[in-house]
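Notebook p. 47: complex prediction with NDP.
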Amino acid sequence: MIYLQNFINGKWIGAESKESREILNPATGEVIAHAADGDVADAQAAIGAARKAFDSGDWSELAATDRAAYLYKIADKLEENAEEISRLETLDNGKPLRETQFDVADAVACFRYYAGMVSKPDGITYQVSDPMQAMVVREPVGVCGLIVPWNYPLLMAVWKIAPALAAGNTIVFKPSEITPVTAKWLFEIIEQVGVPAGVANMVMGPGKTVGNEIAESHDVDKVSFTGGTATGRNIMKAAAGNIKKISLELGGKSPNIIFADADFEAAVDYALFGIYAGAGQVCSAGSRLLVEDSIYDRFVEELADRAQKIRVGPGNDPETEMGPLVSREHMEKVLGYIEIGKEEGAKLLCGGRQLKENGLEKGYFVEPTIFVDTKPDMRIVREEIFGPVLVIQRFKDEADAVRLANDTDYGLAAGVFTNDGAKAMRVIKKIRAGITWINCYHPTYNEAPWGGYKQSGIGRGLGTYGYEEFTEVKQININLEVEPTGWFSN
Ligand code: NDP
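Predicted complex, structure tokens below:
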């Protein structure tokens, strides 16, 4: 059994209320851990510690190369423990080991990427009129609240923690209350490498108390959030009190467009990968597949055939290709959407059931599901289901594809498959989304900005963009001839 405590001001402590919560394995429903169930008091203690640590300057004023050295050490220790951390991530979140191994490797690379960035040239100088010199420097924002969801528990944490610490901020991190296990390992590593007490704090507990306190507190200068759009809206309101800086990475209903001239096999393969990787619990999932009329029947038939062959099972079984959903509550939400789709008149082409055979009955497994004969105003076409449910739309030409693709409140991601390079670029340029792919789906890089248009969020994570989100910009104007202005005569 694993016991998880909060990490506040360099100490591991239980919730002030002494309450704890059970953490379940989504493949079996079994209890794998007990986690401190923090609330507002715990969040305030962590915010206080982070505030004090920031104001002391012990971290923000440390030489950039020294901060980088800590980040490199964290990366090394994560790498040394990669096997165990992937195993625990699979146990907690449910996704197959091959996915969690990839996530941990990506987390290691992310720490190294931001460690490298801190020591690169920074700032700008301007040629202004003599005798002045103007320059711009970047400084840390201050205390940053980092709130993440359950779909990539470790990786989402690292996408925020690495740039925030690299830039000299102190942090209060809140994992999802469903998946806090690997955060404990990450914070143990942060402790082991000697990051000063109070710089990095973690509080477990519900979003409506712990998360809301982080978003509301006037001692927090910035909140960086990944999760649902409805929660993002609440965070914006809570953050308004002290005009906190906010970065929001929210949901999506991303179109994946297949033209008739695409490489057929590659397009089928990526359409499956786009929706069923992570069992569809991926913000950028290609959850709306748009297929051109002339190949529609053949494409959809092949897709359904292959979707039904996906091996669904526990993540720790090496044969498994798709794991369970993260919780019973979430599985019921996804199954609810499948019922809504049927009631709306869409045709269920395959899947649609909870899988209970072959030892899966205690877990939260849902079949790879496909709906066809959909209409643009159906809820299953418009709302983020966040599960292994693909809705297919048919289009007649390029203009129709672009119109359907953009007919959404979201704007996170999009894919286009065609062997006509000019057409691919024309379409991508017209799509209102922040992350796009041509002839592939899902690859992401620490170097490139991650985030969305429209209701998919504000700001960008990763790359130089993600680093800048954790900095303030200051202009410094220097007088090179120090003498009175003479503006006033007396
Ligand atoms: P939420 O947006 O509810 O949760 C994400 C994080 O925010 C969690 O840590 C959560 O805490 C916290 N939180 C919840 N309410 C507040 C609040 N008022 N103030 C501050 N923090 C808060 O996502 P869910 O996990 O519940 O999933 C709901 C839906 O969101 C999914 O079905 C999916 O559609 C979407 N989603 C999108 C993701 C993305 O990457 N874009 C990722 C995950 C979900 P708690 O521990 O209580 O959950």
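Notes: The mean pLDDT is 97. The pocket of NDP is lined by residues 147-151, 174, 176-177, 206-208, 211-212, 215, 226-228, 231, 234-235, 249-251, 283, 384, 386 (CB under 6 Å).
Next step: compare against the earlier run before touching the bench.
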